[in-house]
Write a structure and sequence with these properties.
With about 170 residues, the protein is mainly α. It is built from nine helices and no strands.
Length: about 170
């Protein structure tokens, strides 16, 4: 079974075949939201899970930060945010790879510059939630920033706000 079919939208509405399956799977859990908002939130939460999983370990503090951000961005209940984050986390852990790029590209295509900047800020917050932004997370953040259309200097200007959390600047 293809990933797109596995993640298909619930209900009678036909999903856009160009939309990443990961986005559709998460969005299907948000049927109370308008479809466009659900897809936006699905991609947003997946990219957060992508950065949390960049170092191959998703810490409880990173999960809590993702849940907080999803609640804040989408005005979801805590239980709804937990569900969205759990699905996104599972997808990022088990699928990753190609989906990482596809979902991030989809987010870029369907978001404004302000929304992409907000996502980039949230990515740094999730990566820093456990107290340290690892080298793997730093590398992944720069990759995501590029996929979102940011230049290296633009991404680094935000990175400067998290200097004390960067592993390369912390004393062991």
């Amino acid at each position: 079974m293809s990933l797109l079919r596995f993640l298909g939208l619930a209900g009678d509405e036909k999903a856009d075949e160009s939309e990443p399956e990961t986005v559709r799977r998460i969005a299907s859990q948000l049927d109370k939201l308008p479809p466009e908002q659900a897809r936006y939130l699905a991609a947003f939460s997946y990219v957060l899970a992508r950065i949390a999983h960049a170092d191959l370990e998703i810490d409880a503090s990173e999960v809590a930060e993702m849940e907080r951000l999803v609640c804040q961005i989408a005005s979801l209940s805590e239980s709804e945010a937990v569900l969205v984050v759990q699905i996104a986390k599972s997808q990022a852990q088990h699928l990753g790879g190609t989906d990482n790029y596809v979902v991030t590209r989809e987010f870029r295509k369907n978001s404004t510059q302000e929304q992409r900047a907000e996502l980039l800020q949230c990515i740094y917050a999730v990566a820093a939630a456990d107290g340290t932004i690892s080298g793997a997370e730093s590398t992944e953040i720069l990759q995501i920033a590029e996929e979102l259309g940011f230049t290296r200097p633009e991404a680094n200007s935000l990175r400067a706000h998290y200097r004390d959390k960067l592993a390369e600047f912390q004393k062991n």
